[in-house]
TrEMBL record:
It comes from the Eukaryota. It is found in: Secreted, Cell wall; Secreted, Extracellular space, Apoplast. It comes from Panicum miliaceum (Proso millet). This is Xyloglucan endotransglucosylase/hydrolase. CDD domains: GH16_XET. Contains at least one intrachain disulfide bond essential for its enzymatic activity. Its EC number is 2.4.1.207.
Length: 329
């Protein structure tokens, strides 16, 4: 065998061994792994809609998508992935953004019309002086009748700087991260069955008009006087088991070990302080919690509507200290 093909074989074998789990190794309960070398937009993504409302910057490594009175915009990864770590650094539009939705998510809705899977970060705009809300959601095997929404505030202003938002999806757990902090973990349970996403998905990013629901249940709508609304994406990272390309996953899929105790307590501290809604606590919508919910004493922090009492207290404080602030939730 020629020397060059030996070298090629060695690289190939190493790649195949690494592909045993195509999740980044550090996903093993340690800190959030680095994004790796991002693909440029042209290498890894395609525009879905919004013609000139998608613009590339910085050598095709940064993407701006915008919403104006004509259209929103969106793009998707060219490949589909079974498990992996998917992240982007995102900067959201500032000022009045009520009704605006920026979504960063995994989905296979274009392949499986009735049995699709989805993992969502949705950023919900707000009126001036009020923070963006972040929502996460999980659908599996077309379970659109059972929303698993959670909503949170953030400890920073997401319109001032780029922050990293990541979804770690393994065979047995899903973790959503904001910067280094895990904010939500979904553990696969037997009772969830196929409602735990288990088919290859692509990565999507979109901006659109969600006036009918996004801000205070639709009370505050997009005002195109403030358009265009521009969401900036950088360091888009796909580190997963790409279907039909090099990395193949072993049968059953990649496992990610549990979070470290330090990460778990960071997550719990975040949730105690910043969670504004949790479907597991929503007794109006789900008189009996969905099977994967293990509701403990923390439920006392939520109203029967699923809305967090702590969030209400924080709003109350701000309301008193900032005279004239409007009352958008
Ligand atoms: C997924 O949903 C379809 C349609 O409802 C159902 O026929 C199928 O059994 C489900 N798959 C699993 C693995 O439960």
């Amino acid at each position: 065998m020629a020397r060059s093909s030996m070298a090629f074989l060695a690289v190939f074998v190493a790649a195949a061994a690494a592909a045993g789990s195509c999740l980044p190794a550090a996903a093993a309960g340690g800190p959030l792994p680095p994004a790796g070398t991002p693909l440029s937009f042209r290498e890894g993504y395609t525009q879905l809609f919004g013609d000139s409302n998608l613009a590339l910057h910085g050598d095709g490594k940064r993407v701006h998508i915008s919403l104006d009175e004509r259209t929103g915009a969106g793009f998707a990864s060219q490949g589909a992935y079974l498990h992996g770590l998917f992240s982007a650094r995102i900067k959201l539009p500032a000022d009045y953004t009520a009704g605006v939705v920026v979504a960063f998510y995994m989905s296979n809705g274009d392949v499986y019309e009735r049995t699709h899977d989805e993992l969502d970060f949705e950023f919900l705009g707000n009126v001036r002086g009020r923070e963006w809300r972040v929502q996460t959601n999980v659908y599996g095997n077309g379970s659109t009748a059972a929303g698993r929404e959670e909503r949170y505030g953030l400890w920073f202003d997401p319109t001032e700087d780029f922050h990293r938002y990541a979804i770690l999806w393994s065979r047995d757990r899903i973790i959503f991260y904001v910067d280094e902090t895990p904010i939500r973990e979904v553990v696969r349970t037997e009772s969830m069955g196929a409602q735990f996403p288990s088919k290859p998905m692509s990565l999507y990013a979109t901006i659109w008009d969600g006036s009918s629901w996004a801000t205070s249940g639709g009370r505050y709508k997009v005002d195109y006087k403030y358009a265009p609304y521009v969401a900036e994406f950088a360091d888009l990272a796909l580190r997963g088991c790409e279907v039909g390309r090099r990395a193949r996953e072993e049968p059953g899929g990649a496992a990610a070990p549990a979070m470290s105790p330090a990460q778990r307590s960071a997550m719990e501290a975040f949730r105690a302080r910043y969670m504004t809604y949790g479907y597991c606590y929503d007794r109006l919508r789900y008189p009996a919690p969905l099977p994967e919910c293990s509701v403990g004493p923390e439920a006392a922090a939520f109203f029967p509507s699923g809305d967090g009492r702590a969030a209400l207290r924080r709003r109350g404080r701000r309301h008193r200290t900032r005279a004239g602030a409007d009352s958008a939730v």
